[in-house]
Amino acid sequence: MNRLSVEQFKEADKLPLIVVLDDIRSLYNVGSVFRCGDAFRIEAVYLCGITACPPNAEIHKTALGGEDSVEWKYFERTEDAVSELQKDGYFVYSIEQVEGSTKLQNLSEVLRESSSERFAVIMGNEVKGVKQNVVDMSNGCLEIPQFGTKHSLNVSTTAGIVMWEFVKFLALSDK
Fold first, then answer.
1. DSSP secondary-structure letter at 148?
2. 27-84, pLDDT tens digit by residue?
3. How many CA atoms lie within 13 A of 125 on its CB side?
4. Which of 89, 133, 139, 159 pairs with 124 at a CA distance of 20 to 30 A?
5. Which helix (H) or strand (E) element contains residue 172?
6. At CA 26, angle to CA 133 and CA 88, rounded to 5?
C-alpha cells in the first residue's frame, strides 16, 4: 500500500496548507479533519476556541491516528491564529458563503494569480460558520457551489473537498 510510518510522515514534504478549525463542536468532525489532513499530507491543523484537542478518544475514533501524524497547534482565539498565519506569509481563506466569494471551481485560476505559495483555510462552527470578524480578517473567501435545498455541508465533508482542490492544484497539476 506504500503507506508512510508516522515518523516518515513527519519528515516528508507537506502540502503548503494549514486547516484552521474555528469553534468546531463535534469531536468526530475534528477527527475527520485530521484523517483527511493525513491523507493529503497537509502541514498542520490549527484548533481554535472551543475546538477540542488530542489526545481524545472521540477524536481518535474518526482520526484513526491522523492526530498523531498531522502537526497541530491550539489557539484560544481564531483571530490570533489568522494573525500568525498572515505574519508568516500565508494567504488565508475563510470557507464561507458570502458576497464576493470565489467559487471553489475557480480556485486554480485564483491560485495561479496569487503571489503566495502557502495557504490556510478556515472552517467554521457547524451552526454559525466562520465568525464575521475572522471572515473580515481573511484574505478572501471560498465557497462550494450547492444546488439542493440545504445550502450547507458538514464541516468535515467541506474540509475534505477543499483540501482535495488544493491538492489538485498544488501537488498534481503543472500549475
1. S
2. 999 999 999 999 999 999 999 999 999 999 999 999 999 999 999 999 999 999 999 9
3. 14
4. 89
5. none
6. 45
